[in-house]
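Journal club side-thread
Mid-discussion, someone asked how the predicted structure for our own chain would compare to the paper's figures. Pasting it here so we can look after the session.
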Amino acid sequence: MQAEKLRMEIRKTMVSLTRTGPLLKGSISRVTLGKKVRTKGNRVAYLLTYKGEGNKTKSVYIKMKQVKQVQAMIQNYRKLKKSTNKLIDLNVKLFKTGQMITKPQIP
């Protein structure tokens, strides 16, 4: 009975993984570049900062109109990471029951 509940939860989690959407890893930073030349205020830029290959920090310029889209993609990545960790925990629990499934079945 416990194993069947775990299998159902695993299926639900796997379905949620397939519906994640576009992903970006990292964080957005708002950078002040100094005073504007022709008008009042400061020049502002947005950067996506993430760890790339070889654990090297990389930054990518983001246009102001893209900030919300990038935030949504970062949120999708966080949801994916959370779901993946949940799936691993569920698989460990199922493994401990001795009734591990060999190949996952996605509905």
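Post-session note: The radius of gyration is 21 Å.
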